[in-house]
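Dear support,

I submitted the protein below through the web form. The confirmation email said the job was done, but the results page showed an empty box. After a refresh the structure appeared. I'm attaching both so you can tell me whether what I see now is the final result or a partial one.
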Amino acid sequence: MLTVETASSAEAAAGRAYRPVPLPAYLPDRLTITLWDFSWYVRSGAGEPFEDLDRACAEAVARGYNTVRICAMPFLLFGSGLDTSALRLDRLGGDYAQRVRWYYVHAPAVLDGRARLLELFATLRRHGLYAILSSWEYQQSSSFAVDRDWFDALLAVPPEERAERLADALADLIDFLAAHGLDDRVAFTELHNEVQFGHLTEGLGGPRGDDSMVVALEPRLSRGVARFHERQPDRPVTVNYARVPVGGMRGIPAEVDVLVTHPYVYGVLDEVTSAFGLRGPLEEFRQDAVAAAGLLTPGAPPAAEWTLPPESAWKLDATIVGKGEIYLHDWADAGAFDRYLYERYQAHRSEMERILTTWLSVAADHAAARGIPFVFGEGWIGYTPLEGGFEEGPVGAHFCRLAMAESRRLGARGSIVCSNAAPHHPMWQDVALQVECNALFAGSPARSGAHPA
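What the results page shows now:
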């Protein structure tokens, strides 16, 4: 058994070298990842894309994937103390966010949370697939619950303790899988998704997402990583970051075993975000400018009126997506929105390509300096309306190919065709692009998914 010598970041900086826990030897040489996030349980009702897990897994294999990345709802199942034998999930409320990627839900679901987890892992094994364990719980997972108990339990944990509580919950989850003989499906574990965005930052001050937040979070996250290592010394663990935080890399905990970043380049989408005030307070959302640009469908209500009823208002706090952004995506004329982006894209093209290649290179260099593998778990352009086609079209396909080729060239251990290439997105139907890009990254067929005897 490998013994992991845990050390604080200060001790590591003083010269006490940390020996990273290697990824399991049974994994494929390169992880071709499809992002199933929290949708694998939220979108599991009648007629939903994850109702039939066998079908979803078979389709993933046919597209060249060998790994799924999921919110395993660890805190809910193993840290909250709540009864999860009849978990009720549904849309946020009415038509709110029903034209927003990751948020639209066609049918409610009632499920036994732990049984659903075992069903997923048994299905992954049948299809030779692996899973990256993560959590979106301090960002949005609980907003899909009919009741607020899950959200309240998350916020009841003091902010300074949240990373450690996640570590314990994930360690318990792995023990649970091991007790059922399914732990060999785990590729590695992330304490949480995009740690600098969400309720993990509570009490630290400063803007969420800023590189300074990466540095401010380091003590909390380092304690969480150390706690996981204490509980699961043979299992690699990490956290992951939105973008590649080039101005805050020193804040990445010294004892992560994998570097995981999400290089969303935005570019032309940044122009939209800043021009219309999508990610600030709703008072800063410029509905007049959006309407003047011809981006709204007829009958769009005033933005202040597009919200949830009082009894569901807690869900607006349980999710981090801006109210202005939800409003625009819900009420956008998708064709007009796509045209708006295409008309402005050329002015941003060079910058977007430069940012992408630079960020990927920075991640590769930082991982090399630490002697750890690196993985790109999400990317590449950004958050577009559900019914839009910009990321699925020729520009998006160009960035998928570019990113996968660069991921291969730089030696990434895992990468993704695109965040939108998953069963709950329209891009899933573009089988040829996914097969092409996965082959471009993997270079050769992945090894068998069977665990060695």
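Response: this is the final, complete result; the empty box was a page-load delay. The domain at 25-265+371-442 is CATH 3.20.20.80 (TIM Barrel).
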